[in-house]
Every structure is written in C-alpha cells, then in structure tokens.
User: Which sequence fits this backbone?
C-alpha cells in the first residue's frame, strides 16, 4: 500500500460526510449514504419537534417507528452495516475492501460503546437540569 492509499484509509471515518477528490468510490458512496440518512432524520426530528409532518422514506420509517433511542440507534447502525455489506460483495482484497472493513470496525466499536446504565444516568442528569 502506497502512502496515498494509506492516508485515504486512515482518514476513512463513519463521521466523515464530505466526499473528497481521489478517494475510493465506495468511500464516497458511504459518505453520500450517511449524509442523506442524517439529513432525512434531521428533517423528521425538526418536524416532530414543531408538530409538523415529514414523511420519511419507508425504509427509514421502519427504523424509527418503534423502540427506545438505543434500539433505534442499533437499527440505524445495522442499516449502515447492510449498506457496506452490499458494497463488499463487489470487492476482494483491494483498497476499497479494506476501507469497507475499517468502516465496519468503526460501526462495531460504536455499537459496543453503548452502556445502558451510563446512558440512563446521562439522560436523567440532562432532564434534571433542563426540567428540574
């Protein structure tokens, strides 16, 4: 792997949303997918807050329609994983395969950092400050 490819690989992140010139197509596609996902959820949440109505695409509606915030986040992580798995089938052991693998590792890391007890404490402390 050359220096350019290594730098591309090292800067592939699940929170990077802006495609850049020269990066692998699978990374650009993931960034577009992630940005669109976040924009749809943002618009839906704004509508929910203001009492308005926003129609999510049917696939997304299924993810946010039931469950607590942790369950919804897990469903969304699963959707991201599935997107990457579909892209993975097109590659063998090349740079794009490694980028997909790295993104999937980041999704797993995020999944396993969830701690229900800490989350509940944080939620309670925020609600106490805001509404207490």
Assistant:
């Amino acid at each position: 792997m050359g220096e350019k490819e290594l730098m591309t690989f090292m800067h592939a992140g699940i929170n990077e949303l802006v495609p850049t010139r020269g990066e692998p197509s699978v990374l650009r596609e993931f960034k577009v997918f992630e940005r669109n996902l976040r924009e749809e959820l943002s618009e839906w949440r704004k509508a929910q807050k203001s009492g308005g109505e926003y129609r999510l695409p049917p696939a997304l509606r299924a993810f946010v329609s039931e469950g607590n915030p942790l369950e919804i986040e897990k469903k969304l992580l699963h959707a991201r994983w599935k997107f990457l798995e579909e892209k993975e089938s097109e590659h063998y052991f090349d740079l794009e395969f490694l980028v997909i693998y790295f993104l999937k590792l980041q999704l797993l890391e995020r999944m396993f950092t969830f701690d229900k007890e800490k989350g509940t404490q944080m939620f309670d402390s925020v609600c106490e400050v805001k509404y207490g």
The chain has one domain: 3-131. The longest helix spans residues 25-50. Residues 3-131 form one domain.
